[in-house]
């Protein structure tokens, strides 16, 4: 009953005219930035942080949360219509969504994406509403040692799951943590790493750092690379679904919702729900498996629901543990602190009115998304007609204005552009930017919990393995660090065991290259070329397919081998 009473209070706040306006603006801006590749919710929220200074906490957070989940749907529009994913989470929608568009079924594809987003957003908000108070009540009992290990585990997982070089991800994380150390020591009171510059005694403003690393490099990269050739041509799209479309989409919507929500609970995994959902839907499909990669509506319904459900899942650890699971959530974490609020175990009890207003606004925002996006699909696609030079020059101007508004001095603008150039260099040389921002956010909490734990234990490091929960977290940290070295060995053993049971010889190439890279989307059972070739993701242990090629490739077996396998299956059945 307490949950219902709190939710009623939340709706009373969220339904006020001013908060309804900000919820509408949030989902509208979110959809627009989701449509434009390279902008996304992270950049949009970073740009609007200076604007949120002038708003009260409820209105400001409703606006920014609306941008967050609005962008999740916006990216699917261009993925389906012109095979241009606006967000990484909508990459999977290009496979079957674009194939449906080529067959004149872009309308049903957009409809199942919109309804799936609504279902996922609503159900994941219910799960958020039920799980957040429970987890908050449990996490209150966490000691400083447990909290330090929890933050360290999240930091390592986020660094490992960015894709690309683990070394570069680690360097980016350390860079972000080093930037967080600039300024006055919170306990000793002396300046650190300021180089004698008085303006740095207050530290580096997170909003400036975020705008510099996300907005400036993307703008510079788009201004220096070759311009887009022409605007996409999209005709009128009638968004409707037949009875058969509804029947085929319903189960994938709910499967994708629960999968995406629980994947979103894990740090760094929120956007990967759709990558898990697609092969799951393909494997579970019985009557329409052959359509995957050629226009199966299940291939759009499941991944879109999983992508949107990750929003609710990611908010649970943010609200209850103070752990942001993505760069976008790291920005929301900063906005909370900007308003004098500390995400974590005490937030649900001390600021219950604020949290329940945000939860209620998510219900409202999901309805607004459904009503808003279906009739305005064609209008949103026209945003791609804006020339790169005008669009990204405007982004740079807005960034400069925002940096000046934060400090009202040229030093803030100079700091922003210095870090912007550093971010551009990192992006050019393929250093991931997200770990730097996560490192900046988590470093102060890591430092304070580490110092507090050592003070309580009189400097005894054994405190970090004191108790079952601390030991469990320490073991998990060790496993996550050792996983890249252990997984190939485990797979190599699996290959040998499989060969022994099947009485076949193991090739040298299989032992030298036993697995793909699990840290990139191409390691989740499909190749980087699948989306371009119109082929659906292949299961990591596909039925009737053979592994060949490089580390990240799963290629279909030859036609002759398929025929032999099918014949063998028929003989076995007989």
TrEMBL record:
Question: For bias kind Basic and acidic residues, which ranges apply?
Answer: 563-574
Give the Polar residues compositional bias ranges. Answer: 550-562
Pinpoint the DUF112 domain residues.
20-438
Keywords in alphabetical order, please: Membrane, Transmembrane, Transmembrane helix
- Segments carrying the region annotation (Disordered) are 510-574
Does the record carry Membrane as a key word? yes
Q: Which InterPro entries match?
A: DUF112_TM
- Ranges that cross the membrane: 20-49, 61-82, 109-132, 138-158, 167-184, 204-223, 257-278, 318-341, 353-372, 392-419, 431-450, 470-490
Protein name in the entry = Tricarboxylate transport protein TctA
């Amino acid at each position: 009953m307490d949950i219902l009473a709190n939710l009623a209070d939340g709706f009373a706040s969220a339904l006020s005219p001013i908060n309804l306006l900000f919820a509408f603006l949030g989902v509208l801006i979110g959809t627009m930035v989701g449509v434009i590749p390279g902008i996304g919710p992270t950049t949009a929220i970073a740009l609007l942080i200076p604007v949120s200074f002038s708003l009260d906490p409820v209105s400001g957070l409703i606006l920014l949360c609306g941008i967050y989940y609005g962008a999740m749907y916006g990216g699917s529009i261009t993925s389906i219509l012109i095979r241009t994913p606006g967000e990484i989470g909508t990459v999977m929608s290009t496979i079957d969504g674009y194939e449906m568009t080529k067959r004149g079924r872009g309308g049903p594809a957009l409809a199942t994406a919109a309804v799936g987003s609504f279902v996922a957003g609503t159900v994941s908000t219910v799960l958020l509403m039920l799980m957040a108070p429970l987890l908050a009540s449990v996490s209150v009992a966490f000691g400083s040692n447990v909290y330090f290990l929890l933050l360290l585990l999240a930091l390592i997982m986020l660094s490992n799951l960015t894709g690309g070089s683990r070394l570069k991800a680690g360097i980016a994380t350390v860079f972000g943590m080093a930037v967080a150390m600039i300024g006055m020591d919170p306990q000793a009171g002396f300046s650190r790493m300021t180089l004698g510059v008085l303006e740095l005694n207050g530290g580096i403003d997170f909003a400036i750092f975020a705008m510099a690393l996300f907005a400036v490099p993307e703008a510079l990269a788009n201004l220096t690379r070759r311009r887009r050739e022409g605007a996409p041509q999209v005709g009128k799209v009638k968004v409707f679904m037949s009875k058969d479309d509804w029947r085929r989409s319903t189960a994938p919507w709910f499967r994708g919702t629960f999968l995406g929500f629980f994947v979103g609970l894990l740090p760094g995994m929120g956007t990967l729900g759709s990558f898990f959902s697609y092969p799951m839907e393909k494997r579970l499909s019985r009557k329409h498996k052959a359509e995957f990669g050629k226009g199966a509506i299940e291939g759009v319904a499941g991944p879109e629901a999983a992508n949107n459900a990750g929003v609710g899942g990611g908010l649970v650890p943010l609200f209850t543990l103070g752990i942001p699971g993505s760069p976008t959530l790291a920005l929301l974490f900063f906005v909370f602190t900007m308003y004098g609020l500390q995400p974590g175990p005490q937030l649900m009890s001390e600021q219950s009115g604020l949290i329940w207003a945000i939860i209620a606004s998510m219900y409202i925002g999901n309805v607004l998304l459904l009503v808003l996006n279906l009739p305005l699909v064609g209008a949103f696609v026209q945003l791609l007609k804006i020339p790169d030079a005008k669009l990204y020059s405007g982004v740079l101007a807005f960034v400069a204005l925002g940096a000046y508004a934060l400090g009202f001095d040229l030093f803030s603008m100079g700091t922003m552009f210095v870090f912007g150039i550093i971010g551009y260099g990192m992006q050019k040389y393929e250093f991931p930017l997200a770990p730097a921002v996560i490192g900046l956010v988590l470093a102060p909490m890591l430092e304070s919990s580490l110092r507090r734990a050592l003070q309580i234990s009189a400097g005894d490091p054994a405190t970090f393995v004191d108790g079952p929960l601390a030991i469990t977290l320490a073991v998990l940290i060790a496993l996550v660090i050792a996983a890249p070295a252990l997984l190939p060995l485990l797979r190599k053993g699996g290959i040998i065991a499989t060969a022994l049971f099947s009485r076949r010889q193991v090739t040298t190439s299989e032992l030298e290259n036993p697995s793909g890279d699990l840290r990139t989307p191409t390691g989740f059972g499909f190749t980087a070329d699948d989306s371009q070739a119109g082929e659906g993701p292949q299961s990591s242990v596909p039925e009737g397919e053979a592994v060949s090629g490089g580390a990240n490739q799963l290629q279909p077996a030859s036609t002759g081998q398929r025929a032999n396998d099918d014949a063998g299956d028929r003989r076995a059945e007989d």
